[in-house]
């Protein structure tokens, strides 16, 4: 959704409030794509700080469908977002600040791009279905949270391979 901020940039002490629904059904972080299950409407407040400078504040939440990093089971993950950004009008924008404000073109704010950048910053490093997730079997691929599979999962210490070779050589003699 696009919001015109020209009144906020030009009128001193101007405050504008708007409730905006996140308009996308999928979110992509560049590597993975997640389905947006639900999202609360975001309540935004746009206020003039000084001539050509505005503050954007917003609050809402998004629920994404993600896969557990250990067992690959689908997980619903709630991401609460609190947004607080200062933006500049095109007349007052420094070239070094232009990269931090890709969601504003001229006097138009693209709310979906702003929310996407906030979601990206709020994504967890590791997504788990539960804290004690056991993952999947390295041999057969069964989800170990559902039960043991009975596979031999013994992995010998690679540092001991040389000693094992010595013992095997003496047995042959």
Describe this structure in words.
This protein is 17% helix and 36% strand. It has helices spanning 6-10, 111-122, 161-172; strands at residues 2-4, 15-20, 26-28, 33-39, 42-50, 53-67, 74-88, 104-105, 108-110. The radius of gyration is 26 Å and the shape is elongated. It has three helices and nine strands; from the N terminus they run E-H-E-E-E-E-E-E-E-E-H-H. Strands 2, 3, 4, 5, 6 and 7 form a six-stranded antiparallel beta sheet that branches. It has a three-stranded antiparallel beta sheet with strand order 1-9-8. It has two domains: 2-122; 134-173, no CATH class.
Q: Which properties best describe this structure?
A:
single chain, alpha+beta, 3 helices, 36% strand
Strand content range: 35-45%
Tell how many strands the DSSP assignment holds.
Answer: 9
Q: How many distinct domains?
A: 2
- Gyration radius, rounded: 26 Å
Task: Note poorly predicted spans.
Answer: none
Pattern of helices and strands: EHEEEEEEEEHH
- N-C termini distance: 79 Å
Structural class: alpha+beta
Mean pLDDT: 86
Largest sheet: 6 strands, antiparallel
Number of helices: 3
Shape: elongated
How helix-rich are the residues, as a percent range? 10-25%
């Amino acid at each position: 959704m696009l919001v015109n901020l020209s009144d906020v940039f030009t009128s001193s002490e101007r405050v504008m409030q708007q409730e905006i629904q996140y308009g996308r059904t999928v979110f992509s972080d560049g590597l993975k794509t997640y389905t947006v299950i639900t999202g609360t409407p975001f309540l935004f407040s746009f206020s003039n700080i000084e001539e050509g400078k505005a503050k954007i504040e917003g609050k809402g939440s998004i629920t994404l469908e993600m896969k557990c990093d250990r067992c690959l089971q689908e997980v619903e993950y709630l991401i609460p977002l609190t947004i607080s950004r200062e933006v500049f009008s095109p007349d007052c924008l420094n070239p070094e600040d232009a990269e931090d404000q890709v969601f504003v073109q001229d006097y138009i704010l693209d709310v979906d791009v702003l929310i996407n950048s906030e979601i990206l910053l709020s994504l967890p490093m590791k997504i788990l279905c539960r804290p004690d997730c056991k993952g999947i079997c390295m041999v057969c691929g069964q989800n170990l949270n559902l039960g043991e599979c009975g596979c031999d999962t013994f992995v010998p210490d690679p540092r001991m391979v040389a000693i094992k070779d010595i013992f095997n050589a003496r047995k042959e003699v």
